[in-house]
Amino acid sequence: EDQVTQSPEALRLQEGESSSLNCSYTVSGLRGLFWYRQDPGKGPEFLFTLYSAGEEKEKERLKATLTKKESFLHITAPKPEDSATYLCAVPPGGTSYGKLTFGQGTILTVHP
Amino acid sequence: AAGVIQSPRHLIKEKRETATLKCYPIPRHDTVYWYQQGPGQDPQFLISFYEKMQSDKGSIPDRFSAQQFSDYHSELNMSSLELGDSALYFCASSASGRSSYEQYFGPGTRLTVT
């Protein structure tokens, strides 16, 4: 069974204090890993798709990386508006589509 | 850019009542997914449709049913509502035939059962 584990559960940062969020996965034949941002009471907002180990993608202060066992979401010089829950998710093993299995998420709080 | 539309955004029902949630996917997206998210939990997959046919089924109660129509919109029908059905219900859509299959989520419907 596909498993996705995120750590830490919660992360508090000062504005400008860079850090990383971790997403470990157990999927047979990974064909993609998705990162989402979710604000309270809103739908997950798509951030990145990573397909293969070694791949990196960037968007503003966020950079996502992928290895064969885990993915990292690096946040550089975060701002209070980056506060949200960050979710990673994978499709069924051997496919790049289908129902997503989500991690529990990391609640990021950035203090001014 | 057009996004996934869900209606209603908020719904309050009493126990044993029925509810219908609607989802309008992004234009040219042919696959729709339904997820349920309880407080402090990650989204849990319920059911999906591709080209109007059920493509996958998750932990969806027998009291729930869903379908996708010819215009690709989807409806989730929930009967004999229970207090535990109170949650955020998200619809997501994706386009088949592409390399990414990225799922884009709607704003959700908050269902409260009293």
Give the SSE layout:
The complex is a heterodimer of chains A (112) and B (114).
Chain A: E1 3-7, E2 10-14, E3 19-26, E4 33-38, E5 45-50, E6 56-59, E7 62-66, E8 70-75, E9 84-90, E10 101-102, E11 106-111
Parallel strand pairs in A: 2-11
Antiparallel strand pairs in A: 1-3, 3-8, 4-5, 4-9, 6-7, 7-8, 9-10, 9-11
Chain B: E1 5-7, E2 10-13, E3 19-24, E4 31-37, E5 44-50, E6 53-57, E7 64-68, E8 74-78, E9 87-94, E10 104-105, E11 109-113
Parallel strand pairs in B: 2-11
Antiparallel strand pairs in B: 1-3, 3-8, 4-5, 4-9, 5-6, 7-8, 9-10, 9-11
Describe this structure in words.
- Chain A is mostly beta strands.
- Chain A has one domain (3-111): Sandwich (Immunoglobulin-like).
- Chain A is built from no helices and eleven strands.
- In chain A, strands 2, 4, 5, 9, 10 and 11 form a six-stranded mixed sheet that branches. In chain A, strands 1-3-8-7-6 form a five-stranded antiparallel sheet, with no helix packed on it.
- The model of chain A has no long low-confidence stretch (mean pLDDT 94).
- Chain B has 114 residues and is an all-beta fold.
- Chain B is built from no helices and eleven strands.
- Chain B has strands spanning 5-7, 10-13, 19-24, 31-37, 44-50, 53-57, 64-68, 74-78, 87-94, 104-105, 109-113.
- In chain B, strands 2, 4, 5, 6, 9, 10 and 11 form a seven-stranded mixed sheet that branches.
- In chain B, a hairpin with a 6-residue loop joins β4 and β5 (44-50).
- The model of chain B has no long low-confidence stretch (mean pLDDT 93).
Tally of extended strands of chain A? 11
Main beta sheet of chain B: strand number and arrangement?
7 strands, mixed
Q: What is the distance, rounded to the nearest whole angstrom, between the alpha carbons of the first and last residues of chain B?
A: 37 Å
**What fraction of residues of chain A sit in β-strands?**
over 45%
Helical content band of chain A: under 10%
Q: Helices and strands of chain A: which structural class? A: mainly beta
C-alpha-based Rg of chain A, rounded: 13 Å
Give the SSE string of chain A: EEEEEEEEEEE
Note the overall shape of chain B.
globular
Q: Biggest β-sheet of chain A, characterized? A: 6 strands, mixed
The string of secondary-structure elements of chain B, in order, is EEEEEEEEEEE
Distance between the termini of chain A: 41 Å
Averaged pLDDT of chain B: 93
Radius of gyration of chain B: 13 Å
Uncertain runs of chain A with pLDDT below 50, 5 residues or more? none
Largest chain interface and its two residue counts? A-B, 22 and 27 residues
Low-confidence stretches of chain B: none
Q: What's the number of helices of chain A?
A: 0
Total number of beta strands of chain B: 11
Top-tier CATH class of chain A: Mainly Beta
